[in-house]
Design a protein that fits this description.
The protein is mainly α. It has a single domain, classed as Orthogonal Bundle (Arc Repressor Mutant, subunit A). Helix content is about 45%, strand content about 5%. It has four helices and two strands, in the order αββααα. The two termini are about 15 Å apart. The model has no long low-confidence stretch (mean pLDDT about 90).
């Protein structure tokens, strides 16, 4: 799944975009977990709870904030 995050939106989200981390792929702040991992997992039918079990460095709050952001854009 692809998405666009405008530069001014990054500051409002619990994500980090740094060329030194995962070649600049948007990741959850404080982790190396790409944001698209959440979106792809949910699209594949994985529940949020399962995702959080599989990626314990991502907090529920981070995931819900990102999901809310993308829902508001669609």
């Amino acid at each position: 799944m692809s998405f666009v995050i405008e530069e001014e939106e990054v500051d409002r989200l619990p994500i980090n975009i740094d060329p030194e981390i995962m070649s600049g792929t948007p990741v959850f702040e404080g982790t190396r977990v790409p944001v698209d991992a959440l979106l792809n997992n949910l699209s594949a039918g994985v529940s949020l709870d399962e995702f959080l079990e599989n990626f314990p460095t991502v907090s529920r709050e981070q995931a819900l904030t990102v999901l809310s952001f993308f829902e508001s854009k669609s």
